Amino acid sequence: MSAATRTIAAEARTGGDSPAVPRHIGIIMDGNGRWAAARGLPRALGHKAGAEASRRAIEAAGDMGVSWLTLFAFSSENWRRPADEVRDLTGLMRHYLRHEVGQLLEKGVRLRIIGDRAAFGPETVAEITRAEAVTAANTRLNLNVALSYGGRAEIAAAARAIAARVASGELDPASVNESTLSAHLDTAGMPDPDLIIRTSGEQRLSNFLLWQSAYAELVFQDVLWPDFDAVHLQAAVAEYRRRDRRYGARTG
Ligand code: FPP
After folding, report:
1. What whole-number distance in Å separates Cα of residue 77 and Cα of residue 99?
2. How far is the C-alpha of 151 from the C-alpha of 54, rounded, in Å?
3. Could you give the CA distance from residue 143 to residue 151 in angstroms, rounded to a whole number?
4. Ligand 1 centre and the CA of 243: distance in Å?
5. Using one digit for the tens of pLDDT, what is the confidence trace for 192-207?
6. 210 - beta bridge partners?
7. What is the CATH architecture of 22-150+195-242?
8. Residue 78 bears catalytic tag
């Protein structure tokens, strides 16, 4: 742990209205392809380097005292990429699910997958279920990996589930409120993200945690994801701490 990380983690423990460290950070990991192209490498190697950057981000988030980290690893739109790239990406995910769970255990990380896991087929669904079960007792860092995830699809699925409960008479339509909707999302029971980071200079949410990010601070960084490390995470948290979070209220 670096001295800067130690300082931020120590300050986080002092608590207060505006915690020094966000409780939940979401990251849109962007720029693997451009990183590879800049080096004359195939895109697959960009994704492989991106996976290593994910490992660094998980470690840095744990060291800083972040409780929840959500990584956008594969969007519902990513299925439209060329078949060989989809194969490389899904192969990489399977590799990590199979071989990296020990690392997560060592670091006290609890893994959950959000998104349409069934789209990856029964074998991968079984690997996901296993990895989630094996890490279920860990409490140091909650890691969500968003796979075949889309915010609009997640909200539509929640609406469908609520409609079904209303139709069956189990739920009174007049009682449906924001909490009902939140409770039917993949992130039910989890805190909303305080900070969303997107790398590579692009400045949009791209269907990531649309409902949950209503009051999140957005930080866009000019680093390609494979180059991301603890220093970038610390810089994003420092920027978050400079923001004045009002949740729509007027202060002063
Ligand atoms: C965006 O780069 C990144 C992705 C589509 C996938 C992200 C996947 C990883 C970082 C690897 C797997 C992660 C885990 C947790 C195992 P891009 O290809 O859109 O880059 P470009 O915009 O430069 O083309």
Report:
1. 26
2. 21
3. 18
4. 28
5. 999 999 999 999 999 9
6. none
7. 3-Layer(aba) Sandwich (3.40)
8. yes
Out of 27, 28, 30, 200, mutate this one to test ligand 1's pocket (max ligand atoms within 8 Å of CB): namely 30
> CA geometry: angle at 188 spanning 209 and 245, to 5°?
55
Ligand 1 pocket test target in 27, 28, 32 with most atoms within 8 Å of CB: 32
Distance (Å, rounded) from C-alpha 108 to C-alpha 126? 22
Which atom of ligand 1 is nearest to 145's Cα?
15
Give the span between the Cα atoms of 112 and 187, in whole angstroms: 10
The whole-number pLDDT of residue 10 equals: 46
Residue extents of the structural domains in the chain: 22-150+195-242
Under 8 Å between Cβ of 70 and 24: yes
Structure tokens at 85: 């790239």
Q: Is residue 207 flagged as an active site residue?
A: no
Residue 64 φ/ψ, nearest 5 degrees: -80, -10
Distance CA 12, CA 64 (A): 8
- For ligand 1, the distance from its centroid to the CA atom of residue 221, given in whole angstroms, is 15
| Cα 4 from Cα 71, distance rounded (Å) | 23
Read off the pLDDT of residues 40-76 as tens digits, 9 standing for 90 and up: 999 999 999 999 999 999 999 999 999 999 999 999 9
